[in-house]
Amino acid sequence: MTSSNDSSATAGMNPASTNSPYVATGSLKGRTILMSGGSRGIGLAIAMRAARDGANIVLMAKTGQPHPKLEGTVFSAAEQLAAAGGQALPLVGDVRNDEDVAAAVAAAVERFGGIDVVINNASAIDLSRTDAVDMKRYDLMQDINVRGTFLLSKLALPALREAGARSGRAHILTLSPPLNLDPKWAGMHLAYTMAKYGMSLTTLGLAEELKDDAVSVNSLWPCTLIDTAAIRNMPGGAQIVQAARGPEIMADAAHAILTGGAATGNFYTDEQVLRAAGVTDFAPYSLGVPEDRLVPDIFL
Fold first, then answer.
1. Which residues contact 141 (CB under 8 A, 6 or more apart)?
2. What is each CA distance from 276 to 204, 219, 270, in whole angstroms?
3. CA 20 to CA 221: how far, in whole Å?
């Protein structure tokens, strides 16, 4: 189980790569992004895409020291973001801790003058069935996924409302799935499904709550398996990820959402967003297998 980001490896496509079929029509230059997690994987890929525009990125993550199995810390991530053209503020903090989250919001406002975008990226995963799941892991998923998403969004609201009033649009983007009530998904891994759907309910509720505040609230989820550290650390993981896509597809989709206007209350998939942005060939995102042999992600 990971406790920072469901999709937490950078193996595969380089998050800094510009070899992408996505052609941006907008820019995040000068925008300030506050992200939970982001020291590696999908979060880092999203941050790197924003950094290439010249965005300001505040990363709050627990990984102040190198992990024995996972590459990258919040500090090494910040160095990569600065090298890519952005400004970065690395903060060691835990999204479960109220004081850490409040301090991250305050630091973002103090350093960059406000917050334009909040990205709820931090997440924990355990796919155990009900009789097998450890309750400490259940609590971890609830605390990071549900409470952490709610808390970061809540404490950033004053800054987001100010940004919306100033620029015409601020954003909250959460990496969580569509609210698919097919019993299949609850039956496969109830504890994890409850935690991820809690994140998605935050999107649903805040989109309605903030509809008159120039703050767009949306979720984003991959259509296929994404190359992750958790998968690579499994037996045969190096082979499994060959049927995945690299994290840059999510980075491009997030960029398209955040530069694409005022739509709110949506549960987007990466393919949906990128098709609307003009992408017709998704093969450059894949790690090896033909498109028809990619492994679909869950909840879809």
1. 124, 125, 126, 191, 192, 195
2. 22, 16, 10
3. 19
pLDDT of residue 9: 33
Active-site residue among 22, 138, 192, 285? 192
Token match 């919306």: residue?
Answer: 164
pLDDT of 8: 36
Residue 6, pLDDT score: 54
- The beta-strand segments (E) located in 4-160 are 32-36, 56-61, 87-92, 117-120
What is the model's pLDDT at position 68? 66
Q: What is the mean pLDDT of each run of 10 residues along the chain (300 residues)?
A: 40 51 97 94 95 98 76 91 98 97 98 98 95 97 98 98 96 97 96 98 98 97 88 76 93 98 96 98 92 94
Other residues' Cβ atoms within 10 Å of the Cβ of residue 272 = 15
Asked about 192 being catalytic, the answer comes back as yes
**Nearest Cα to Cα of residue 96 among 136, 47, 130:** 136
Q: Which residue is listed with tokens 């790690």?
A: 287
Token code pair at residue 19: 């070899």
What pLDDT score was predicted for residue 112?
Answer: 98
Of 248, 155, 170, the closest CA to residue 212 belongs to 170
* CA dist list (Å): 5 to 81, 152, 216, 280: 18, 15, 23, 28
Provide the Cα torsion 228, 229, 231, 232; round to 10°: 120
Question: Using CA atoms in the order 245, 247, 250, 256, what is the torsion angle rounded to 10 degrees?
Answer: -110
Query: Residue 19: what pLDDT?
Result: 80
